[in-house]
Amino acid sequence: MTSDAPDGAPKNDAPKNDAEAFSVDLSNCDREPIHLLGRIQPFGYLFAVSMDWLVQHVSANIGEIAGRSADDCLGLPLTELLPPSSVHDIRDRLQGLSPGEGSERIFGIDLFNDGRRFDLAIHIVRHSIVVEAEPCTMSAASSGTLVKTMIGRIERCISLEALTTEAVRQLRAVTGFDRVMLYRFAPDGSGAVVAEAARRGIEPFLGLNYPASDIPTQARRLYVKNRTRIIADVGGETVPVVPGIDPDGTVLDLSLSVTRAVSPIHIEYLTNMGVGASFSISIVIGGELWGLFALHHYAPRRLSMELRSVLELFGQIVALVIEGRLAKEMRQTEEAARDLHDRVVGRLVSTSPSPDQLINFASDFREMIPSDGFAVWSEGRVRTVGTCPFPDDMPGLARFLNRAAASRVYVTDELSAVYPKAAEFVDRAAGLIAVPISRTPRDYLIFFRREIARTVTWAGDPSHKETTFGPNGPRLSPRKSFEAWQETVRGKSAAWSVSEQKSAEALRVAIMEVLLRFNEENERLREVASQRQELLIAELNHRVRNILAVIRAVVLQSRGSATSVNDFAQIIGGRIQALARAHDQITDASFAAQSLEGLVRTEAEAYVGEKAGRVELSGPPVLVNAEAFSTLALVMHEMVTNSAKYGALSDSTGVVHVDWAIDERSCCVIDWRESGGPPVQAPTRRGFGSTIIERSIPHELGGEASLNWRLKGLEARFVLPGKVISMGTSNAAPAPAPLPATPAPEGLAGMTALLVEDNMIMALDAEQLLLERGLGNVFTAMSLADAMRIVAEETIDVAMLDVNLGGETSFALIDPLNAKGVPYVFVTGYGETLDLPAEARPGTLSVKKPYSAEDVIEALSKVAGRRG
After folding, report:
1. At the topology level of CATH, where does 352-453+491-518 sit?
2. Which one of 68, 204, 372, 755 is least enclosed by Cβ atoms within 10 Å?
């Protein structure tokens, strides 16, 4: 690796942190610390001034260009060292700078007002302003034109590989360096040369790998902070910055310096490679050092500050382009993974498998996360597909995985490094992703990948380092050999990508949700099964006793009707057959929709015989679906038997009216009304039959059931939801005739109004207002439920609806009012405009609060005139 690390190895003058650039241990360096401290390259000049413009530090050669010795410059005001015009320009560039946040550049300035042009780099460190000067080298081309041309070529590249290749080619063409490389870092800190442009006749480095130790952590931090580094002459002498410390004992931080020399160990590293000059450009993505453009020349070569600034900008733009390409690739990969994930999860949700059944989805899971093998570890047992560890290896592996967090996916591409026993089956599983799907006991979905033996080509043996001795003791020296050195890496699988790891985490969440639903559904089914079993046992006991009682009653009641033994037997047989037909309807195995009228009539005939004619049926041809038929038959059976025992059918005069109709919700509303029989009272004991009547339809079908024990006879209402009924093709009984349309009224006199208002005071006031203006009756509702009941039960001519009813609105009344042809006016406190639902009548009016009597009466009169 042609590292341009500014401080490329431990025990050198690299900063340990950004705030302490050079206050490091220099005991192992082979030069005097004062000469290492803030060394400046031969072509550069530096002076640091305090905020009150007193010079605190100067480089040893600043006197050369200023016409003074370095010692003479110390303590001088800046205005004695530089002319006012230069001080003015420096002050201008300081306006947008903050300490530690980059630097400003001035190109071609007449620094000493003597005709000599310099390029300046200015930055702020703590309480000091650091100014660096280089002799100006005028560029032949415009900086903007140069960057535009270079970026234009980069943007035309389709692939990332083509982009990096073109980038190094452009840099070599612009700089003239012998070799330009793009070095990309791996997650472990090592890296490889992924693109190279070099002159003919030199050994290529493309594809070579370099260990992380070639660029230590502290050097990487400097690469992020200071994006370029120039070494114009590897063998050139450097000069110190004097004095070594400020008057307060602080060492000058030169982390952002552009002319500062680098560690002698890094100079030795480059010397071992035969490099004469070096230049580097950082590629920073997401605040991390993604890669590095490393430029080498085999003789001294200096680039002007202006060109280096242009190339720094080029590096930043390339970093943005690379980041965009990587983000696009990641987005495309994640979108494809998400689509696949959605399909797989959709199948999981539709089937709600148990943990053991997840093995049936192995092909889907392995499509999401490519692997050589897949296993489901559940309740101490393993099921596998593909190449996996042997079953005997799984309990130990599961115990190892149990040490990881229960709510996180565990990922490794070198299992034997963390679980030594895995070396025994490394040929079958070298890497894995373990997806936990439960907490106690811990179950897993495990994806395995086999070992891939790889040959890695290093630039020299990365482990070969020598110990040398300097004036302060022994230290490690950088490698001297950079010839290709190959190493075979074993025990590792193909790495798991970020996208695959995200897919595993998404799969973990989805599986947990599916299994939770599975457990909840199992619990619900067990509860339902238990309830059904109890209901069946109770019903069986009830039915057996009831059948025996009915048969006894049939026998006793048939005695007076028979004239002979044969006649008696025929009557009894016919009635028992009718009873059997009713039970056949309950247990019909054909599961076909059957007539509601036929159900009620059959039950009546089976239990009351000749009295069945006193059961009057009326309604459209409704069919009851098979899954609901037995429930409804059971309810009708109880209603008929109760009527025969205690109600209208228990004597010779009573009548039962059973009417049904389809309401606006597409539900079938069944009204049971008994009259003409003995007086009826609510039962004092709640029996099983009453429970069946009141709870079966709401519980089993999601409908409604209500009983009203009136003295004149029992009244009941049952509501069957639309999902359990359908319409037949013939009318067993005539449908009720539609109500005639009400003619439009001349005014409001005598009308009945519905007033919906949740504020009691306002409701009383509005009610009085309407009655005083001539309305005949006003029904007042303070909640949506009350209003719904009034609309359903009463005849309404016009409605006045407050929009906001606390936690609900009156918009739900629109459909029932429309269905009955009742006009309405909204009252609102929301402002001038009211956004009405789409189902509201065209021309619906609203009255804004606070309202006057005239406003309300005028609005009600207008809508009442459009009634119908």
Report:
1. Beta-Lactamase (3.30.450)
2. 204
